[in-house]
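BUG-423 | component: ligand-complex export | severity: low

The export step for adenosine-5'-triphosphate jobs runs without errors, but we want the raw record kept on the ticket for reference. Input record follows.
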Amino acid sequence: MADRELDDIISKIEKEKKPFLKKSALDTSSQPSEIVSRVDEVGKIVRYLLDYKQEQVVPLLSIYGRSGTGKSTLVRHVCNYIPEIKLCFVNLRKAKTVFGGVNLILNELDQPSLASAQGMNNGMQRIQETVLSTMGLERKKLFVLALDEFDVIFNDRRGNPSDFVYKLVQMQAELKENGCLVIIVTISNDVLSDYDLDDRIRSRIGNSEIFFKPYSDKEMLEILRQRAEEAFGKKIDDKVLEQCARVSFLEHGDARRAVDLLRVSAEIAAKGEKDISIEHIKAASRQIQKDRVDEVVSSLSHHSKIICMVLAAKTYVLEKEWHSTKSTYDKYAKYLDSEPVSYRRCSELLKDLENTGLVVSKTGSKGQKGYSSEFQLVMDPGIVGEIIDKEWWEKVVVNPKKKLDELKSMGVTRNNPYYGVYQ
Ligand SMILES: Nc1ncnc2c1ncn2[C@@H]1O[C@H](COP(=O)(O)OP(=O)(O)OP(=O)(O)O)[C@@H](O)[C@H]1O
Ligand SMILES: [Mg+2]
């Protein structure tokens, strides 16, 4: 056999084995080539931006909504699409402090960072001058200063986030007087006016807000179809994509996690040299949850771990999703091998767990007893239990549950010794 013939065979088989035509289409860290759906939100953004034609733009536009609803992607896409716009897009998560935010903006405008000793006012002044000269040079009509993950700046307790917003709006007004139109776009999970701002700012920023609602399962499916086509270069079974969209819609409504789920499923399928199927989606969903729980649990305190474990046990044994603070506390105190924290502290720890994404809460009325919080584990209880303490989980939760179910199937509902274990 001639070398060329062999080369042809190798490259043909390599191609057959490679399910991805363009894997980067499933990379959620870069800008997608195409925006799917979101017509309302795009329309609203464009309406605010095109106000520049009347030389009257709002100083500050707050874009908000849950994670993975397309906020960052859309702002970038729309601003880059309109040729008269100069976009300066910074993610404040990279900054952490207010002053760090000022430097990020300067760097994005190709300016060197300032030392903090040079002060905020100096930094703002430098930004203002750079915006003015850039707009003069590039002959654009509107400068968009997009501040992504803006809420992070409110964690800077030593800086003054509220004053930062004030200074930005002040700068916007001064630039306008100099014939330079600027709009500040803040992007966050909650609406900007919910944050800790003082009254002089509230009255100046008005309430120009755009809410991004979570994706429906139909929209999610559309996004996945577009990505799959680009990534695999061939049609993927619609049932597989529907399942992927359905799982994502039910669990979070987050497009980033939906695309990630498709990517991990495809990787698992490729390893087994199979076409992607519903089984692969299930395996990937488990894999992603495991990785996430692993990551979160490793940073939890001992008490938080036990609280998590109790929630997992109650969910698993009782087949019930929501659990009150009181019932969780009682079981936590029972199973802990040392002195329990106070009821109040336990309630704080439950709230903290919500920030990790393992748990969600709701406030329910308890009639005459007033209001109380209830908590739900959003991850598979089996995964949580096994990761925190596999041995304990098997012995105290899984085995008694098996016995409980056995007795139940035999019709024993009363006097069943395994009832009430997690009540
Ligand atoms: N309408 C859409 N069309 C195509 N891809 C989308 C769309 N919306 C979101 N995505 C994809 O989902 C991912 C998450 O979107 P994006 O980063 O814009 O969300 P976000 O609302 O800014 O989330 P976060 O609050 O976590 O920052 C991105 O990788 C993006 O490519
Ligand atoms: Mg974002």
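Assignee comment: Attached the raw record above. The mean pLDDT is 90.
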